[in-house]
């Protein structure tokens, strides 16, 4: 399923997927909070979904499709109006200011991919008698980044990488974040989304000015050992934990079994908190338009002229000064743009970092990519577009920054 958004000239096409574990969203003022996996067992099940069969579902995922064809309106003077004073939240480990100079760009460890799917189907493992796994339907990925929070468990990305604005099922299904992902490898583990937060205007009205989201994640689960086996082992649990596992799992002998009067389930290896493993970027809002930013992401796909520029396998960067833009077709009048050759596929959710410190690989998140444009009509994308981060963005961030998540390595039903 796809939708087409006209950014006052920018046309963005994005595949939108259904959500399976999300409860009804709850709004508080301008903020909407929505559970993604609101129990430990639900998160555990999502972990197994992505890690089984040598991470087959991760490997099969394709970039979330975003193609922009016509440039947004570029406002040559002025810019978005700040709704309060400029502010920053320091990055994890960078609470004390440091200075550094370097010509080489060290890529941030905080950047990674978010994965989600359009549900699943049970599939028998070839050449086995009774082994089944959940094969993802339409698995896709976006770019995202770890960001500062009280419990070092927060991810920032585009709102359209979390919320389903077409299927009317609130959020994407089986949502996880994998920093540093590369061809099935998960060097710092995978992090299942617990609760997502966005602006009311994006959730209800699909307002492009508010196309951003902050997601709390559980502790990571370590991924693959030499590319073949999931880390962990069977652990004895109570009958209550065993009984709460899905019937289909017990019927198929999937991650839980009964032996000699005892109950066992697979316990994954806890990777710890996201921010402890990769750090977390700071946040900047109400900043003056025209400041330089680095854009970090996983662009993939081709330019309109057919040139296949990026594979999406490795992290890339671009650099430029922001400028004001608008997109009246989706009620987006306070966007910002930056010159960038990123193609649309995969770059959705890329982090815009102001004041990036090369040696510490830290800066201040000041935008997320929601579309790309060909501004000069030469069939090559040359501009990325982001919402302007203002005081209302900080309000959404504040709703998420102090929420605890916890571990899911050993499954529970609470």
Automatic annotation (TrEMBL):
Record carries keyword Signal: yes
Keywords on record: Signal
Classification via Gene3D superfamilies: Trypsin-like serine proteases
Signal sequence segment: 1-27
This protein's record includes keyword Manganese: no
SUPFAM superfamilies: Trypsin-like serine proteases
Coiled-coil residue spans: none
Protein name in the entry: Peptidase
Origin species: Acrocarpospora corrugata
């Amino acid at each position: 399923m796809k939708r087409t958004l006209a950014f006052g000239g920018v046309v963005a096409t994005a595949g939108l997927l259904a959500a399976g574990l999300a409860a009804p969203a709850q709004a508080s003022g301008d903020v909407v909070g929505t559970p993604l996996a609101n129990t430990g067992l639900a998160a555990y099940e999502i972990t197994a979904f992505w890690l089984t069969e040598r991470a087959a579902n991760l490997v099969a995922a394709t970039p979330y499709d975003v193609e922009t064809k016509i440039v947004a309106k570029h406002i040559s003077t002025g810019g978005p109006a700040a709704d309060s004073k400029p502010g920053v939240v320091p990055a994890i480990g960078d609470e004390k200011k440091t200075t550094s100079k370097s010509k080489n760009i060290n890529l941030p460890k905080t950047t990674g991919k978010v994965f989600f799917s359009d549900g699943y189907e049970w599939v028998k493992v070839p050449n086995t008698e009774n082994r089944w796994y959940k094969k993802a339907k339409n698995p896709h990925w976006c770019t995202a980044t770890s960001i500062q929070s009280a419990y070092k468990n927060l991810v920032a990305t585009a709102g359209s990488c979390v919320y389903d604005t077409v299927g009317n099922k609130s959020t994407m299904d089986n949502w996880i974040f994998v920093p540093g992902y590369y061809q099935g490898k998960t060097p710092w583990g995978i992090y299942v989304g617990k609760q997502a937060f966005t602006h009311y205007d994006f959730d209800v009205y699909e307002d492009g000015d508010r196309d951003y989201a902050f997601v709390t994640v559980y502790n990571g689960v370590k991924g693959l050992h030499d590319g073949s086996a999931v880390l962990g082992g069977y652990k004895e649990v109570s009958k209550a934990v065993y009984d709460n596992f899905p019937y289909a799992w017990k019927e198929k002998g999937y991650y839980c079994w009964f032996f000699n009067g005892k109950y066992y389930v697979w316990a994954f290896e806890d990777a710890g908190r996201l921010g402890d493993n990769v750090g977390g970027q700071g946040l900047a809002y109400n900043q003056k338009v025209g400041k330089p930013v680095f854009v970090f992401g996983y662009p993939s796909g081709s330019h309109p002229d057919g040139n296949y520029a990026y594979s999406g396998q490795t992290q890339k960067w671009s650099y430029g000064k922001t400028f004001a833009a608008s997109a009246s077709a989706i009620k987006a009048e306070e966007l910002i743009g930056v010159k960038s050759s990123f193609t649309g596929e995969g770059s959705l959710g890329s982090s815009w970092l102001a004041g990036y410190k090369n040696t510490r690989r830290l800066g201040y998140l000041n935008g997320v990519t929601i579309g790309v444009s060909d501004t000069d009509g030469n069939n090559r994308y040359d501009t990325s577009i982001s919402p302007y981060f203002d005081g209302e963005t900080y309000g959404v961030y504040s709703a998420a920054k102090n929420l605890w998540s916890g571990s899911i390595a050993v499954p529970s039903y609470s």
